[in-house]
Amino acid sequence: MPSADTQAPAAAVLAPVGAAGPAPAAAPLPLSVVIPVRNEAPNIAPLVAEIEAVLAGTRHEIIYVDDGSTDDTAAALRAVAVAAPVRFLRHRQSCGQSAAVVTGVKAARGTWIATLDGDGQNDPADIPRLLARAEREGGVILVAGHRVTRRDSWVKRRSSRIANAVRARLLRDDTPDTGCGLKVFPRALFLDLPHFDHMHRFLPALVLRQGGRVVSEPVNHRPRTRGASNYGTLDRLAVSLFDLVGVAWLQRRWKRPVVDAGE
């Protein structure tokens, strides 16, 4: 079963890189964009440029978490941080995407968090629309991107459809695409969730377990044009099925109390 331990895994020792670190005691920002990456050096500068263009009118920061890259990702991050509001941390050893997201959200100063994958397949142009809906509806909410037209291989698309159908039936999270990396949610909400390996795949179910609401928004999805995927189809499917059982266990082991005000 997954652990609800909220501490970073022992292997996720942070190496100080650039200007990153724990969330500083400064005025909060409206938005932090958290991007977990591993071996994505060619995608760093183009993605930052896109984010800066679409968020030009919004106070924000970009937080990259380098999950133990062995390429030039660290050097690429140092280069972009010179001219853009980029902060970054590095796991000395790879601990997985979920651990990187947890590290980034903990370091963030934004009231709202937007996550997206670092491979360039999520379109930053969708962030303002998802953020606007989150702010408009407010409260304990997760706005999840829905890749209506996937730009992946047939095998990936087919395996995702199967996984989504099984997950939706077992967890009843009413979300058509939990695998989309583009999501917007309050930082405070995420910090209240149980943290465990691969939790990023189950954020809608965890938010519902916490008493929140989940809504989906159609988003653009683009083919990968640089670098190589860090995931294999079969190994990802096997791990997801194991985690699915664990998340179902978590749902059944928690009763959310209705609290009345005292006199």
Automatic annotation (TrEMBL):
Domain of life of the organism encoding this protein: Bacteria
Any one GO MF annotation of this record: undecaprenyl-phosphate 4-deoxy-4-formamido-L-arabinose transferase activity
Gene3D superfamilies (UniProt xref): Spore Coat Polysaccharide Biosynthesis Protein SpsA, Chain A (3.90.550.10)
Record has Protein transport as a keyword: no
GO cellular component terms attached to this protein's record: plasma membrane
Single GO biological process annotation from the record: lipopolysaccharide biosynthetic process
Name this polypeptide is given: Glycosyltransferase family 2 protein
Organism: Roseicella aquatilis
Lineage: Bacteria, Pseudomonadati, Pseudomonadota, Alphaproteobacteria, Acetobacterales
